Amino acid sequence: MLSRTAENLYWIARYMERADTSARLLEVGSRISLLPSAHGYRSEWDSLLQACGMAPGFAAKYGDPVQRNLESWLFFDRDNPSSVASCITAARENGRIVRTALTSQVWDALNTAFQELKRLEREERSSLELSQMTDWVMRHAAMLRGAIDATLLRDDGFNFLNIGYYLERCDNTARLMDVKYYVLLPRVDFVGSGLDNYQWTTLLRAMGAHRAFHWAYGGEVTASKIAHFLILNPQSPRALITCIAGTANHLNRLSKAYGRASQSQAMAAEMLARLEEETVDRIMDEGLHEYLTGCIRETAALGQAVHEDFFSGEAR
Amino acid sequence: MAAQSSGIRSVGPLQGGAGPNIFDEMTGTGSELRPPYARLQDWVQSMPRELRNLKQAEAEELFRRIGITFAVYGEGGDPDRLIPFDMFPRVFSALEWSKLSRGIKQRARALNAFLVDVYGRGEIIRAGRIPGRLVYHNAAYEKEVAGFVPPKGIYSHVVGIDIVRTGPDQFYVLEDNCRTPSGVSYMLESREIMMRMFPELFRGNRIEPVDNYSEVLRRTLASVAPAKCKGEPNIVILTPGHFNSAYYEHSLLADLMGVDLVEGQDLFVDGEFVYARTTQGPKRVDVIYRRIDDSFLDPLCFRPDSMVGVAGLMDVYRAGGVSICSAPGAGVADDKAVYTYVPEMVRFYLGEEPLLDNVPTWQCGKADDLAYVLDKLPELVVKEVHGSGGYGMLVGPKASKAEIEVFRNLIQAKPHNYIAQPTLALSTVPTFVEEGVAPRHVDLRPYCLVGERIELVPGGLTRVALKEGSLVVNSSQGGGVKDTWVLAE
């Protein structure tokens, strides 16, 4: 497969997953800001944007974090490369370039999302409910995912799409957790408070995981349980371990198909082995923020290795 | 990107629509029903207006769904625009087609012989049959490949010959396209859509299929693999990228042939070969079906600012490490000034009489022709030698006095830049319009494939001027497309 084709497929998945995350972030932010807090409305939004690397761009364009501007920035703004609109447009453009590597169902899912987005952009903003907008994004992300799973040939292109999904999701989960833990509640005496619980629940809800969490753990929402759920529990579809296992699986399949080992395959295997040995206590001792920062860095390095192995056109 | 498909269908009658002197391909010049169209009469009558509108909407939806939104190469315009599709097919009988087919193949052979000659010994020029200036001073003449003979001596592997008709047996070639004629995706998709919407038509008529075009193209390209290629050649299509107006066509052909669609950045030169960057490392490329112009192929050889080419490609090509289709330099054969001499080429290289006529053409660069042209300007069509897309031309009978005077000055200032042709009475084909069915002028572009064998898929691109009386079929100026049928014997 052409390196560029593989890279386009990989980015289709990453952009779509990112659109999903931006929508979820908008929901987390909006819910949290409905609650009285220690910092006030402004700094919470600011912290959220900071954690996702979107703060400087927002400040430059809009200044104060007013709800309507935040919605614009995270949803519609083409100046924000991570906005829902930017991501969906980029995913669809990547799809258009590799049309021949996609089934018509997959193309339809991408194209429909894009066409509907254009319609949404023309609509009166006051008629758009935030929750409808985020639901809309999640629905289209799920439709694309479903079309890929149901119709695509299980060839190397399928593996690159999945690697894109898993790496992006891994990064996003780590960032969303970090938002909650590090940014929103920096003072130790808030830990375990009602506010603390509310924020954790909001986070779980935004990830579409709070029911699953209660099924799996029950009882009180605590930082340790959540850390276990979102980092170490292979049952959780968003857990880091699930994402890394998925990445490793698809890298293994590529190695098998190509008949050669790759550096990214070795890296993913090593990361997975460490996660399997990891315990929540050790993570908490190290500090959740420090641990998550390390994860984000390692995930980026793995993405870089995938790039070198497959997208540069130079076999290693 | 210089355009080759000028598609100037200006040569036509003075009166709009089918008039007494206009040949209609369904009804002739009167009220007869010509046999190839016999079965279409009932079909039209069986479709009331509502059903027809429904079908039309369905066809448009299908075109949009498959994403075939593209302008015929060189015409410019919005790349996301749909070209109107007319459901009324254009039909040729087996006999008509076999005559056309022989003429087209003959012309394709002569054009390739000419190219080998002018990049070699230049016999036709030595023999005084064509002025050397027209060839060697032509902007499309590539000195870089002089003396090099491409595999099998073929320069132009896909020859698009634009043809108009004025009567039952009168066909004229308007121009040749030897570089990378586009529009074949319309031939393929129009047929797909017609078969989907009107299967009963295809049961009732015996229509030659066109869907083997991609197989024949693949075979053609494989047959010109370079000598250094052992085994099954690796073929790729080189596109300028997804912003190009014909990108859909590039990706469709890649898909149908099962070959990679590459951009310049996907290829690189290492030693004596060209390689594609793949997920499994470099993969050697043997044949490049390029859909970019000569000047962009290789920044080291042609335009240094080309972002879509491959550095060093021409060196590999001249050393026989890769084949480029069409071969660089092929454009010199489809120049409008060289066009006049194609019948000479047929006689000179093949020793045959041309089966297809040229439109009589006056070269304003010649003193006698110039005098005639200036005298008859109100009756003639004047074109720029290098113009395209139906722009930069004068349609005498339709022009105002002031416009004619403007052109008179232009021609006198640079006579070499212009040619003139009489206005032909272009044939019409029934076409669906608001009020029902009405005659509209058409042209035809068949795609002749030249490799080890010369092959012509029975069909082509029929363009239709949708505006009443209009002779310009360019999509940018209100043109549409039709499915083109060739009936089996």
Keywords:
heterodimer; A: 316 residues; mainly alpha; 2 domains; 15 helices; globular; B: 489 residues; alpha+beta; Dna Ligase, domain 1; five-stranded mixed sheet; 21 strands; 21% strand; disordered N terminus
Low-confidence stretches of chain B: 1-17, 70-79
Note the overall shape of chain B. globular
Low-confidence runs of at least 5 consecutive residues of chain A: none
Distance between the termini of chain B: 42 Å
Assess the beta-strand content of chain A as a share of residues: under 5%
Q: How are the SSEs ordered, and which strands pair?
A:
The complex is a heterodimer of chains A (316) and B (489).
Chain A lengths: L2 H31 L7 H11 L3 H8 L4 H10 L7 H14 L6 H19 L7 H22 L4 H29 L9 H13 L3 H7 L6 H10 L7 H19 L4 H15 L2 H7 L1 H24 L5
Chain B lengths: L37 H8 L3 H18 L18 E8 L1 H25 L4 H4 L5 H5 L21 E8 L5 E7 L6 H14 L1 H6 L8 H11 L11 E4 L8 H11 L2 E3 L4 E4 L2 E6 L2 E5 L1 E4 L3 H4 L15 H6 L4 E3 L10 H4 L2 H9 L6 E2 L3 E2 L3 H10 L3 E5 L8 E3 L5 H13 L4 E5 L5 E6 L2 E10 L1 E4 L3 E3 L4 E5 L13 E8 L3
Parallel strand pairs in B: 1-21, 3-11, 4-5, 4-9, 9-10
Antiparallel strand pairs in B: 2-3, 2-18, 6-7, 7-8, 12-15, 13-14, 13-15, 16-17, 17-20, 18-19, 20-21
InterPro entries (chain A): ATP-dep_Glu-Cys_Ligase-2, DUF403
Protein name (chain A): Alpha-E domain-containing protein
Organism (chain A): Pseudogemmobacter lacusdianii
